[in-house]
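Title: Prediction job returns without error message
Component: structure pipeline
Severity: low
Priority: P3
Assignee: unassigned

Description:
Job completed but the reporter wants confirmation the result is attached to the right record. Sequence as submitted:
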Amino acid sequence: MEYVITTNKLSKTYAKAKKPAISNVNLSIEKGEIFGLLGPNGAGKSTLTLLLTTLTKPSSGDGLVGGHSIASAPNKVRSCLGYCPQKASLDEELTAWENMILYAQLAGLAGRKAKKCVEELLEEAGLTEKQHNLTKSYSGGMSRRLEVMGAMIGRPQVIFLDEPTIGLDPAFRRELWQQILKARENGSTIFLSTHYMEEADELCDRIAFIDAGEIKVVGKPNELKNALGEVVHLRIFSDTNAAAIAEKIKELDSGAKILNAPNELHIFTFRGEAMSSALIQTLKLENLPIKSISYSGATLDDVFLHYAGQRMFEETV
């Protein structure tokens, strides 16, 4: 097994910050995989990406990208990666062609080799017809597609994509997914930072959840979901005795894990249907009113809830 990215107790604390942005991160990412980093805003996704792309220095620990240390050999790290930042990076006063040629020059390509690479990527992105238009005339989806293709200049060993599809409509998002999959087919390892569960489920071979700067769990999406079984979601009234309900749940399934949230109980069990039916009857007999009850197979959102104790994004009612 060959690892392209590894980290060892990688940590970062910004000046004047009370807590580290990321703390003691240990990851090993295999050659040729699409690895997803998921977490809510402010969880540490962008900081970890900045560290691995050498755009900020670690406070402690180290990481290897392509076999090179991000702390002691940043130039060698940069030579083997492509990077699409979260924020817009195009020069809007240049055409798509000019932006891509600039990316190629920064990647060390020149002359015919640079032109051929740019032509191929613009064609893959479906932007050949508009390659000589100023990018300020591009839609958000077209601009983002161009930025992602810019990260693929030179078919780098590792491609870092920091929330590449944020704010895009579903159609543009799926088009970019195809480009990401193609980059993997061409031999690149992809490090994808995202907070879209569907995106991680669809694209990633493995994922890691990060919260408050700490990695909570790492694994294959289906394996992480299957390990939790099913989840019963119970909405209750503000004056309902949640502790009494939790006690009845434990009587029905001593192995169930119960997580409390405001006016909600989330029950992780391998007996979702049986638990729901029995719980409804029990709560009626005990005169413990509820708003609603539902169950389903665990989702990635449930995985985050299980390991972090909260949802990635709180629902508003």
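Comment from assignee: result matches the submitted record. The two ends are 47 Å apart (CA to CA).
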